[in-house]
Design a protein that fits this description.
By secondary structure, this protein is mainly beta. Helix content is about 10%, strand content about 50%. About 0% of the residues have low confidence.
Length: about 400
């Protein structure tokens, strides 16, 4: 997760460069927003439901945050296509009702939002997503703990932070707005450590937004002259992960016995994704996906003479560590960022169930140039099983 923090800093640097580059004939519009949030913690795992050494339920949370964002000048390429889009970064602190179980994490993130609908000259409905790193979580001392009396904390001090919100924006004056809405947050370490239960939080929020510098007049998107076209994204990525194995292979009389494998394992891959760009906002296509996972399908190769809490394994064949699949993709395109989601199925995975079947992908592309982008993503298996992070670089051919 510290590598995620480095990527977030890199993405924020890209945003600063883009803001400076666009500050030409027309001043960039700058914004600062302060918000407060109260939340209900969804009972999505046993730890927050009270299965911890304190027998304490984590039911609520409170958060305060400060955000800076900017929108591109109307005369720019982005300002013409996306007149209400804004992007930037933020920092927030979250206090849970049982911090002795969770800790009080600090969230650092990039953000982007835009208008969904206007109800009047002063009232609008906006959306905003956040992606970043959350630091300061309580970490469990024994990842193989089987009893709630041994559990206090999570798998990592650092977790990824993902948030999607919808908010009403009411302009009190030309420079000040009152905002209110709902958010859904997800905290997870991306299977880089164990356990990785994931924490989901439903927020209600209120905030104050200030516009700085020149006030840009309200305007409509101008898509005239845009030519639908096809582009080709080639992305290579790598990551690290934890995994578990089933000690049933040494103790069959006890049934399923899942244990954490010591150490971390390498993951890498690439995908080739043609996309048809219907308009400046939406694109869709299909992708050929390839992945190598050093930890895949290890359970059958357990050396039974070694203890289950410090296991050793025979090297599984290379074909048991790789998969190739085909996925359908949809992409939301905005200034600097594109959000790509996909659902796929393996075409080649001869080694076992770990890499076989359905998989889901969520990827954030941050464009450093028109062609080069930083790729930060997550892979889920069979719609519910945590997979792995995907951190890499990509190149867009035939970018317009």
């Amino acid at each position: 997760m510290k590598r995620i923090a480095f990527i977030i800093v890199t993405v924020l640097s890209v945003l600063c460069v883009r803001a400076s580059a666009s500050n030409d004939s027309t001043t960039v519009a700058h914004r600062i927003e302060f918000s407060l949030r109260g939340a209900y913690v969804l009972p999505s795992n046993n730890i927050v439901k009270g299965g911890n050494s304190f027998d304490s339920k984590v039911r609520s949370a409170f958060s305060g945050s400060a955000e800076y964002s900017f929108s591109f000048a109307p005369s720019s390429h982005y300002g013409r296509y996306y007149p209400y889009a804004y992007q930037g970064g933020g920092i927030g602190v979250t206090a849970f009702s049982s911090s002795k179980v969770t800790g009080n994490p600090v969230n650092i993130y990039v953000l982007q939002g835009s208008r969904i609908a206007s109800f009047s000259g002063r009232l609008s409905l906006d959306y905003e997503w956040n992606f970043g790193v959350s630091a300061g979580w309580k970490k469990i001392s024994n990842p193989n703990a089987m009893s709630s009396d041994e559990i206090n904390g999570f798998g990592s001090h650092f977790n990824a932070y993902i948030n999607l919100g919808f908010k009403l924006n009411y302009e009190l004056t030309d420079r000040m707005s009152l905002t209110a809405g709902v958010d859904l947050s997800h905290f997870s370490n991306g299977n880089t450590d164990y356990p990785n239960p994931g924490v989901n939080v439903l927020w209600g929020r209120v905030g104050l937004l200030w516009k700085l510098g020149d006030i840009q007049a309200q305007r409509r998107a101008d898509w005239s002259g845009y030519a639908p076209h096809i582009s080709y994204d080639l992305t290579a990525y790598g990551a690290w992960r934890k995994n578990i194995f089933d000690a049933y292979y040494s103790m069959p009389d006890l049934g399923e016995q899942l244990r954490v494998i010591p150490g971390h394992f390498g993951v890498g891959g690439f995908n080739f994704n043609p996309l048809w760009h219907f308009n400046p906002v939406f694109a869709a296509g299909a992708a050929l996906d390839f992945q190598y996972d050093q930890s895949a399908n290890l359970s059958p190769y357990y050396e039974p003479s070694t203890p289950v809490d410090a296991p050793r394994f025979y090297r599984q064949p290379f074909s048991h560590r790789v998969m190739a699949g085909l996925s359908v993709r949809a992409e939301l395109q905005m200034p600097v960022f594109s959000v790509n989601i996909g659902i796929g199925h393996s075409l080649y995975a001869p080694g076992g169930d770990d890499l076989r079947g359905w998989y889901q992908l969520f990827t954030l592309k941050t464009f450093v140039t028109r062609n080069l982008f930083v790729s930060t993503g997550y892979r889920l298996v069979r719609f519910h099983t945590p997979g792995n992070l995907m951190l890499g670089l990509g190149w867009r051919f035939n970018a317009h």
